[in-house]
Structure to design on (491 residues):
């Protein structure tokens, strides 16, 4: 394992070095939080694919392939569909807004007062996403070093917190680009063909496994529909995803770069399912389907290659974890804390934006590691987060982008009614049931439409300003625009 250990250590050291390099570039709020809004197509596509394809997409995707066969690709496939929908239909408008958070978009569209509650919901979602990603370090480091769970979480979490705190989005962008390359080589170019060959090829896999393993809909229509509601729609509105859209240097970059990333996700989904199907042939009686990835890597790959593929799994986890962490800190600082100290700001006190955001990443990072150590049931935690996100925020966000008649009262009613409905239904049906997100989303939509029609339309001046921002006019504050000097980053 010495060669494998060397590969992993070099990879981790590289992540920290990029954090140090990013610190030298992040001199303004725009540079720190959204990489100066100047990523070109190559870097944008790579980093967007990296953040959406995390540990759940890699380890969990292979596990679903082990359990259901090719139809196990549907979870990651719906993530790719969501990214495609976001990129083709909404990303250009989102990028032109020049905001930092989803809640700022809601305030712009509805004329203020909508962002506070939505900020709390979005903060809870990004926090739990970061926590569940951080817990995944325990699985990977256990395979690598037979490491204690708590120590593994502290080690992996500390590295992510360190490079994220140092350089903000620049560090995360650079590390995500490396992680994208490592995942592509490790999973698509190495593990996929090796797993198929070890299993005897597709003909042997078909001979060894039941026919339903090769049924594209074998996982079940209801499960696929639930994946679409949670993951496809979740991709449309998550702060972690939007914050990457904000890094694009143009609306065309956001649209076409995101389309490339979404297409890559579809290929990654199929690859994970095929690897899991091959693992079922090789190891038909594993205790847990989620052990399939680690088992096939540990037992079937040669040294060096094994280290690279494990580094790919680590890259998948780190990219999602760092993206969720900076999103969580951005929402906590800009949407929640900044409103609490708003009165102080109006008195003219000068606040160091970079220093403040860096402090919030550190604070949120420590909180994430502590919660990850204490938490056991990550599936339930992530389900709660996604249900609240989709049930509470999908309607007012998409409604604001698509329906002019929507009002701030309708948006607030939608968030509150949808959030309470999802919470109550999870209590009644169970956290992992499908009904909470179904009925929560319907109640959120009903509240939005009814209250919006029953209240005074949004002020014409607010809508005029909104249209100006959507058109790409009246963007960032002059200080930020001046700080963001031209760059060829991501060409």
């Amino acid at each position: 394992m010495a060669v494998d250990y060397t590969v992993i250590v070099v990879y981790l050291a590289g992540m920290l070095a990029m954090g140090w390099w990013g610190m030298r570039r992040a001199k303004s709020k725009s540079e720190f939080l959204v990489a100066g809004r100047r990523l070109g197509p190559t870097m944008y596509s790579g980093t967007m694919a990296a953040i959406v394809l995390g540990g759940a997409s890699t380890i969990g995707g292979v596990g679903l392939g082990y359990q259901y066969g090719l139809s196990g690709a549907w979870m990651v496939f719906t993530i790719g569909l969501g990214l495609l929908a976001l990129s083709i239909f909404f990303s250009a408008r989102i990028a032109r807004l020049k905001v930092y958070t989803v809640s700022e978009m809601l305030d712009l569209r509805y004329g203020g007062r909508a962002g506070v509650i939505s900020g709390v919901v979005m903060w809870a979602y990004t926090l739990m996403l970061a926590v569940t990603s951080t817990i995944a370090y325990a699985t990977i480091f256990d395979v690598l070093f037979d490491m204690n769970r708590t120590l593994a979480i502290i080690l992996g979490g500390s590295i992510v917190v360190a490079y994220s705190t140092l350089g903000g989005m620049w560090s995360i962008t650079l590390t995500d680009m490396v992680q994208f390359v490592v995942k592509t080589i490790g999973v698509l170019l190495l593990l996929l063909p090796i797993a198929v060959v070890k299993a005897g090829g597709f003909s042997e896999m078909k001979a060894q496994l039941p026919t339903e393993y090769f049924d594209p809909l074998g996982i079940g229509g209801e499960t696929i529909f639930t994946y679409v509601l949670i993951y496809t729609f979740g991709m449309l509105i998550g702060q972690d995803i939007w914050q990457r859209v904000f890094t694009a240097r143009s609306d065309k970059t956001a649209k076409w770069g995101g389309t490339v990333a979404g297409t890559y996700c579809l290929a990654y989904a199929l690859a994970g399912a095929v690897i899991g199907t091959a693992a079922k042939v090789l190891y038909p009686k594993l205790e847990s389907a989620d052990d399939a990835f680690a088992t096939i890597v540990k037992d079937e790959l040669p040294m060096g290659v094994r280290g690279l593929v494990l580094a790919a799994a680590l890259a998948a986890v780190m990219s999602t974890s760092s993206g969720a962490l900076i999103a969580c800190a951005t929402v906590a600082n800009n949407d929640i804390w900044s409103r609490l100290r708003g009165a102080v700001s109006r008195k003219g006190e000068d606040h160091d934006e970079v220093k403040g955001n860096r402090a919030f990443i550190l604070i949120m990072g420590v909180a994430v590691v502590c919660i990850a150590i204490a938490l056991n049931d990550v599936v339930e935690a992530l389900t709660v987060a996604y249900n609240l996100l989709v049930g509470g925020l999908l309607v007012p966000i998409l409604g604001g982008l698509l329906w002019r008649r929507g009002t701030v009262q309708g948006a607030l009613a939608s968030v509150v009614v949808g959030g309470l409905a999802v919470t109550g239904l999870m209590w009644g049906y169970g956290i992992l049931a499908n009904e909470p997100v179904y009925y929560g989303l319907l109640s959120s939509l009903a509240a939005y439409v009814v209250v919006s029609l029953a209240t005074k339309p949004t002020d014409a001046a607010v809508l005029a300003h909104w249209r100006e921002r959507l058109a790409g006019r009246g963007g960032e504050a002059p200080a930020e625009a001046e700080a963001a000097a031209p760059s060829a980053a991501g060409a």
Summary: The domain at 1-339+356-376 is CATH 1.20.1730.10 (Sodium/glucose cotransporter). Residues 206 and 214 are 8 Å apart (CA to CA). The mean pLDDT is 86. The chain has two domains: 1-339+356-376, 378-472.
